[in-house]
């Protein structure tokens, strides 16, 4: 099938889009309100971008509390959502009023960060401390609810030492969860490795596939 994404005339009972970009990592974002209350919420329009330095981005459907906190206080932490913490992660998505601490609601423990003020989730094996970089507002069909992309620079990284084996991080052992379409999630428990083609490989690949001759 093909459908016009602007008309969104897919003809299916539910919009399939989120089932097509899968699995999406979940940024479990902790931030502080200007008045000091902790805020924690999951965002699956989330990813890492950039290598030197590393940046992360998440996108909010409208100006949710995480966005207003981060714009005001300039700092946040991305906690890794894992299989063991799936129920707690889901609880922190409840649409509670500003100033209510979702970390407490979900029974999670705030652990002090090193370089930023918002706490990280003590129970998670990975936390990225971030400094707010910029907001990019992408127009939406509903002007009252723009797509608000928040970008932050990663300035500090916590890894639970139990997951470092022979100098490598065993990500599969952390069982990260990711968002799929509908009510679905994926859990990562297996990895496979592949070596990228080297410059020498690329040269021989180019040699065996000559340019098509015009005409
Ligand atoms: C797994 C998961 C992923 C989510 N991803 C997003 C997202 O990418 N963007 C968004 O606006 N809301 C997303 N939500 C909903 C927010 O978590 C929810 O609206 C939350 O109340 C926002 O909290 P805040 O206002 O404290 O930032 C997601 C919810 C779940 C459970």
Describe the structure.
It is a single chain. By secondary structure, this protein is α+β, with helices and mostly antiparallel strands. The protein has helices at 65-73, 86-91, 102-105, 171-174, 199-208; strands at 24-25, 27-32, 38-43, 46-51, 54-61, 75-80, 110-111, 120-121, 126-138, 147-159, 164-165, 168-169, 177-179, 185-187. The protein has one domain (17-208): Roll (Pnp Oxidase, Chain A), CATH 2.30.110. A hairpin with a 2-residue loop joins strand 11 (164-165) and strand 12. The two termini are 33 Å apart. The chain binds flavin mononucleotide (FMN).
State the gist of this model.
The protein has 215 residues and is α+β, with helices and mostly antiparallel strands. The chain has one domain (17-208): Roll (Pnp Oxidase, Chain A). The protein has helices at 65-73, 86-91, 102-105, 171-174, 199-208, and strands at 24-25, 27-32, 38-43, 46-51, 54-61, 75-80, 110-111, 120-121, 126-138, 147-159, 164-165, 168-169, 177-179, 185-187.
Number of strands: 14
Proportion of helical residues: 10-25%
Unreliable stretches, pLDDT < 50, 5 or more residues? Answer: none
The domain count comes to 1
């Amino acid at each position: 099938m093909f459908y016009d994404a602007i008309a969104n005339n897919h003809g299916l009972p539910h919009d399939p889009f989120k089932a097509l970009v899968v699995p999406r990592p979940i940024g479990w974002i902790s931030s502080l309100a200007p008045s000091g209350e902790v805020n924690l919420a999951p965002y699956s329009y989330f990813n890492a971008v950039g290598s030197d330095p590393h940046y992360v981005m998440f996108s909010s459907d409208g100006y949710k509390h995480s966005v207003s906190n981060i714009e005001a206080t300039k700092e946040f932490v991305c906690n890794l959502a894992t299989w063991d913490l799936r129920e707690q992660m889901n609880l922190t998505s409840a649409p509670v009023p500003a100033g209510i601490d979702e970390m407490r609601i979900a029974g999670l423990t705030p652990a002090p960060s090193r370089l930023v003020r918002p706490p990280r989730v003590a129970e998670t094996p990975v936390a990225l401390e971030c400094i707010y970089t910029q907001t990019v507002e992408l127009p939406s069909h509903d002007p009252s609810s723009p797509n608000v992309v928040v970008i932050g620079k990663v300035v500090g990284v916590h890894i639970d030492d139990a997951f470092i084996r022979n100098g490598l991080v065993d990500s599969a052992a952390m069982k990260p969860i990711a968002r799929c379409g509908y009510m679905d999630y994926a859990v990562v428990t297996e990895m496979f490795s592949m070596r990228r083609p080297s410059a020498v490989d690329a040269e021989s690949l180019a040699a065996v596939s000559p340019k098509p001759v015009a005409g």
